[in-house]
Amino acid sequence: MANVTLEGITKRYEDVTAVDDMNMEIGDGEFVTFVGPSGCGKSTTMETIAGLTKPTEGTVHIGERDVTRLPPKDRNIAMVFQNIALFPHMDVYDNISFGLRLRKYDKDEVDRRVEEAADIVQLEGMMERMPEEMSGGQRQRVAIARALVREPDVFLMDEPLANLDAKLRVHMRTELQRLHRRLDTTIVYVTHDQAEAMTMSDRIAVINAGQLMQIAPPLECYNEPANLFVAGFIGSPSMNFVEADVRSGELETENFTIEFDPATTDGLAPGDRVTIGVRPEDVYLERTADGVEHPSGLIDARTDVLEPMGNEVFVYLVTGDDADTSMDVEGGAATDDQLLMSVDPDTEIDIDEDVSVVLDRSRVHLFDPDTGTALRHGLISAASATGTPERGVGDTD
Ligand code: ADP
To answer: Probe ligand 1: pick from 12, 43, 194, 211, max atoms within 8 Å of CB?
Structure first.
C-alpha cells in the first residue's frame, strides 16, 4: 500500500494540452475516482501514474519513491482496463496466475495467491472454466483477480465496468466497494459516469479540460461545488442556473427576484451580476413547502413537461411570459426561463397548470458568472455544515 502524489503534472501532445498542471495527493488506502467528460484528461493522468505516459512536466511519487521515470513494471502497480484481455485458450487458474508464473514464483506461493484472490472476487470453484464459458461480470472478476495476485501498492482501474450491461455495472459497483474495504489498498479509478464516481469513492477528482476542478468527498462536491463546472456535472438531472443582478436586498433575475443580503456574501455588491444555482430537489411547490426553513418569495410558473420516474417526478417549469422552452439534450433546464423541480410521485400536478414555487434559499448556490467560482454566502454554509439540509422545521423567516 502507498500514497500517490502528483506534482505539477502536465502532458502536452503537439497542439493539445491533455493534462494541465495537475496537483493531488491520494492517501494510502484511499479510493479516488477521476471523473469528467470524455477527453478531459482522466486516462492520461492515470497513465502517468501507471508509467504508460511520460509527463511533459511534473513528478509522480508512489510512497516515498519518485517513479516519474520508472517503467510500469518497476512501480508495483496493477491495472484493470475496460477491455478485458483474458487469454481465450487458458482456464481461470492459468489466466489469474499467468504473471506470477512468468516471474517464476514457486508453485505454493502461486496457489496461495490465486486462492486468496479467487476468494475475494468470489470465483471459487471456477478455476477450470474457460473464458468463453463465463459471463461478462465473471470475466471482469478474473481480470481483477489477475491484478490482485500481484499484491500491488496501488490499483489503477480505467473504466473497468464500461462494457458491462447496466444492471451488472450497478452490481459490480458494490463488489468493488466491498473489495476496497477488504483489501484496504489505494485505488485510483477512472470513469465518465458521475453516478459511479459518487457511489464508490472516498473522494472524487472532477476534471475538465485537463484541469482539476475539485477534489473532495462525493457529498461535498454535491453540496458545496467549488465552481459552475462541478455544480453542473455532479448530480442528475443537472442543477438549474439562472443569471441575476445583485440589488440591495435581493437578487433579480429576468422573471423573478429572491430576497438576499449581499453583505453576507464575499465580494458581492449591488450592481454585480451573479449566477444562481439551485438543484431540482430544492425547488418546492408553495403548497408543499411548509418544512422549508428559508423559503424564497413566491415565483409564478407554469408546468410544461412532467417526467414521472417512479420514485419522483421531474417537473419542467416555465417562468416569465415570453418564455424560451427549448430543451437541453443533456437533461435539466436549458434556459433562464426554465426551472426544473423534483416532487413526490403522489403530488397532484398537471401539465399547463399555473403554480407558485419557492426555492430553499439555504440551498441556493451563487457563482461568479465570469470565472465560475462559487461564492460562499451565510445561508449556504449554515446548511452544508450539518451535511444535510434541515427539513420539517418551522419557517423562521
Ligand atoms: P479522457 O480519459 O478524459 O477521455 P484522455 O486523457 O484520453 O481523456 O485525453 C485527453 C486529451 O488528450 C484528448 O483531447 C485526447 O484527444 C488527447 N490525447 C490523448 N492521447 C493522445 C495522443 N497519444 N496523442 C495526441 N492527443 C492525445
So the answer is: 43
Provide the residue-wise pLDDT of the chain in tens; the chain has 397 residues: 689 999 999 999 999 999 999 999 999 999 999 999 999 999 999 999 999 999 999 999 999 999 999 999 899 999 988 777 899 999 999 999 998 999 899 999 999 999 988 888 888 889 999 999 998 888 888 998 998 898 899 999 998 888 777 887 888 888 888 888 888 889 999 999 998 999 999 999 999 999 999 999 999 999 999 999 999 999 999 999 999 999 888 889 988 888 877 777 777 888 999 999 999 999 999 998 888 988 888 999 999 999 999 999 999 999 977 656 666 655 566 677 899 999 999 999 999 999 999 999 889 999 999 999 999 776 543 333 333 333 333 333 3
**CATH homologous superfamily of domain 237-385?**
Nucleic acid-binding proteins (2.40.50.140)
The Cα–Cα gap between 343 and 347 comes to 7
Residue minimizing CA distance to atom 27 of ligand 1: 13
Q: For the domain 4-232, what is the CATH code?
A: 3.40.50.300
Atom number, ligand 1, closest to the C-alpha of residue 44 = 6
CA 287–ligand 1 middle distance (angstroms): 50
Residue ranges lining ligand 1, Cβ < 6 Å: 13, 16, 18, 36, 38-44
Ligand 1 center to 188 CA (angstroms):
18
pTM summary value: 0.88
Domain spans, the chain: 4-232, 237-385
Cα-to-centroid distance, 205 and ligand 1 (Å): 17
